[in-house]
Amino acid sequence: MNTPILFLHGFPFNGSLWKPQIEFFQDKRIVLAPDLRGHGSGPKENKPWMLLDFVDDLHELLVKAKIDHVTMCGHSMGGYIALEFIRKYPHMISSLILVGSRADADSNEMKEQRHKVLERIRKEGIKGFAADFSKTVLSDEKNEDVKTTVQQMILKNSPEDIMSVIGAMAARRDNTSLLKEVTCPTMVVVGADDKVTSWGVNHSMARRITNCQFAKVPHAGHLVSLEQPEKFNALLDTFLNFHTLDLKELADGYTSSPFALQH
């Protein structure tokens, strides 16, 4: 039986971010795409939160579902959580996919930026934040339907929960040193136009993982799985089936080897 795949969405979205992937993979394997803590219908108790609280939520979910190992695919914040999960439960991860994410902790500059966002949400609510953030996470070639979908996901969260999640991300540890200990087959995917975590950051992370493939997807921003679902699904499907990518066979614009970049 194919290994189940657990999709972890980024901040401040929910499990519906993975709708194109759920529809593509649901007939091939067990697919889990939960709303994470503080997002959508996810758990909201026991504030303040740390990323380990998200890890415990996921472990409980897998235990209840009687799933002992998964392919874990984490986008942005979901990637932060995936690295914390593999630190605590490495035996439960058969393969790992990191999408538009990073392993290092917030710099002081980033913490200041998060504080400014907190202050804005505290004073104004989340409507303005949702409008601005939806522009940041999409490429310049975005369409209005995708933009509306992204804003609707953000607006399903409460201001208080968003602020609590921001605090958890700001307090996360630096997992750069963990990357060399990741031994499972891994793929790092990033949109070529990602303005949140650049392809350079993702490429650097991929180079620190021993058994890792890297792909930069053109015409996509931070939400590569939503903006380019067919290309993204092809990458994941090939990786999951073979754990070795011949990216030339998938589409022009991908990398032709793990670390050879196509501009």
Structure characterization notes:
The chain is α/β, with parallel strands linked by helices. It has helices at 19-25, 51-64, 77-88, 108-124, 127-136, 144-155, 159-170, 199-207, 224-227, 229-242, and strands at residues 5-8, 31-32, 70-75, 93-99, 186-191, 212-217. The protein has 10 helices and 6 strands; from the N terminus they run βαβαβαβααααβαβαα. The N and C termini lie far apart (38 Å). Helices cover 42% and strands 12% of the residues. Strand 3 (70-75), helix 3 and strand 4 form a beta-alpha-beta unit.
Outline of the structure:
The chain is α/β, with parallel strands linked by helices.
The CATH topology turns out to be Rossmann fold
From the alpha-carbon coordinates, what is the Rg to the nearest angstrom? Answer: 17 Å
Which H/E pattern describes the elements? EHEHEHEHHHHEHEHH
Strand order of the largest sheet: 2-1-3-4-5-6
Distance between the termini: 38 Å
What is the second-level CATH architecture? Answer: 3-Layer(aba) Sandwich
State the helical fraction.
40-55%
Q: Considering the protein shown, what is the CATH homologous superfamily?
A: Alpha/Beta hydrolase fold, catalytic domain
- Low-confidence parts, pLDDT < 50 over ≥5 residues? 244-263
Count of individual domains? 1
Q: What overall geometry do the principal axes of the alpha carbons give?
A: globular
Characterize the biggest β-sheet: 6 strands, parallel
Mean pLDDT score: 91
Give the beta-strand count.
Answer: 6
The CATH class is identified as Alpha Beta
